[in-house]
Amino acid sequence: MYYEITPDGAGFLPAETARMDVDGLYIRTLAIAYHLTGSAGHLLINGTAALSPLSILKQAPLLGTPQTLHIIQRHEEETIAGETVKALFERDFPSIKITYESSAADALLLLANGTTTTDPNQIVQAEFYIITPPNREKRIAINCLNNLFLPLKLYDVHVDLQFNGEIYLGMPALQLSQEEMKALAKAQPRPEPYKTALDLGLCVGLFDIAPRFSNLTS
Q1: Coil, helix or strand for 122?
Q2: 3-state DSSP call for residue 118?
Q3: Which site from 104, 118, 131, 140 is most exposed, i.e. has the minimal number of CB atoms within 10 Å?
Q4: What is the rounded distance in angstroms from the CA atom of residue 8 to the CA atom of residue 217?
Q5: Alpha helix locations (H) across 13-133?
Q6: Long-range contacts for 184-191 (Cβ within 8 Å, ≥24 apart)?
Q7: In Å, what is the CA distance from 26 to each residue of 33, 62, 89, 124, 183?
Q8: Percent helix, percent strand, percent coil in the chain, to nearest 5
Q9: Which of 60, 46, 63 is nearest to 139 (CA)?
Q10: For 175-185, what is each residue's pLDDT tens digit?
Q11: How far apart are alpha carbons 52 and 207 in whole angstroms?
């Protein structure tokens, strides 16, 4: 089985796992991915442009001492995020081997043997055996809101460790309350994207009461 990692999330494959049904990790929509290896195993991060590079660096202890970092990025995506992550790891782990790959692929697999692939034939076959996170859409909405509304608590944004090689872990918490996000939305010159994100949170059950947007553009 291949366990899906949603945007801004991470999956860990320990060097030794008790589960024999874990064939790998799966990213459905590739923007930028970080594949880290160390003595303890493999870590795959499904990155976005908004994900804090520092939060990616903070995942390093899971690996023991990081040995390699492979960055896979879609052709049309900005390179700033990947370059920043690369610089941080080179600063803190001078001996790490860093490689970079530009890809036209939409999806990616990290196989249990530690190799990544964007081969479409292999991915099509794997998609018959995908396990998705519990409450997938709610998890995606939480991470979307945390990134969109991160200016007030920039340093509190973390990679969402979703899969530990055995099970899916609990969902992250919203970094701001609904009222704080509404206030931030009202202060934006273009509140529409913020309204849409809050409406998405409402639709998936993150909020009990619909936020009022009547004064957003006044």
Answers
A1: helix
A2: coil
A3: 104
A4: 30
A5: 53-57, 80-92, 120-126
A6: 184/149, 184/151, 184/152, 185/213, 185/216, 186/215, 186/216, 191/216, 191/217
A7: 11, 19, 24, 11, 36
A8: 35, 25, 40
A9: 46
A10: 888 888 888 88
A11: 25
User: What are φ and ψ of residue 159, in 5° steps?
Assistant: -60, 135
3-state secondary structure at position 136: helix
Q: Which residue has the tokens 């996000």?
A: 181
d(CA 6, CA 178): 23
User: Residue with structure tokens 């589960």?
Assistant: 19
Confidence band, pLDDT 50/70/90 cuts, at residue 217: very low
pLDDT above 90: residue 10? yes
Enter the tokens of residue 196. Answer: 């849409």
